Amino acid sequence: MTPVFDFSHFPVLETERLRLRRMTHDDAQALIDLYGDPEVMRYLILDPPCDNIPAAIHMIDWMNGHFEQQNAMRWGITLKGQGDSVVGTCGFHFWSREHRRTDIGYDLQTAYWGRGYITEATHALVRWCFDHLDLHRVQADCTSGNTGSERVLEKVGFTMEGIWRENTFEHGQFVDLKQYGLLRREYLAESTE
Ligand SMILES: CC(C)(COP(=O)(O)OP(=O)(O)OC[C@H]1O[C@@H](n2cnc3c(N)ncnc32)[C@H](O)[C@@H]1OP(=O)(O)O)[C@@H](O)C(=O)NCCC(=O)NCCS
Questions:
Q1: How many helices (H) and strands (E) does the chain have?
Q2: Ligand 1 atom index nearest CA of 142
């Protein structure tokens, strides 16, 4: 077993096309651009909304606060060779040391959808989580019908395990949530194929 991550530094994750880094207050406008887009928000709930600079700064502090508390991390996604602007985010949350599992999540500005960026980021995120958090399982849920997110999870090797019927009150209606899971042994089998 590798030692569990000690949170002494915020790691940068690199993939072929992406650089995932800690967010700072300089990323506030990027988050407003991201979460101010109704297409991005279609299957997400943010309360309070992230629609002005103080709210965005509060959100960045809240995300980084979870790092300080050592129970979650959210990276800003930047595109290599295209400056340092954040175009999306991803991370893990609800990490349970006792049950050795965590949830993950992600989002991306619509201008960059459909280019495989979140699949690439999620591969790196899942790898980092299994390598550093001593996990047995990584899980995610998404609103039934969020086809892009469902495809990302399937492409990264997750199994759709069930549906929480009318689990969440989202934009004025109760919606079904699909639960996805990836076990360590499945991840290892896939990564050695
Ligand atoms: C879901 C989301 C993160 C996908 O990001 P992305 O970078 O566009 O995803 P990828 O390019 O890696 O695509 C992965 C697969 O999903 C498919 N896909 C992506 N968006 C899709 C859409 N809106 N409808 C149908 N399929 C879609 C892609 O075609 C690809 O499948 P393929 O390789 O079989 O063609 C992005 O649409 C998003 O930010 N949505 C809003 C936020 C959100 O819903 N987050 C998830 C909450 S659970």
A1: 6, 8
A2: 48
Report, at the CATH architecture level, how domain 13-191 is classified: 3-Layer(aba) Sandwich (3.40)
Give 133-171 pLDDT, tens digit per residue: 999 999 999 999 999 999 999 999 999 999 999 999 999
Determine contact, residues 90/104, Cβ cutoff 8 Å. yes
User: Where do the structural domains in the chain lie, given as residue ranges?
Assistant: 13-191
pLDDT tens-digit profile of 44-93?
Answer: 999 889 999 999 999 999 999 999 999 999 999 999 999 999 999 999 99
- Cα-to-centroid distance, 8 and ligand 1 (Å): 33
* Cα-to-centroid distance, 117 and ligand 1 (Å): 9
Please give the Cα distance from 25 to 23 (Å, whole number).
Answer: 7
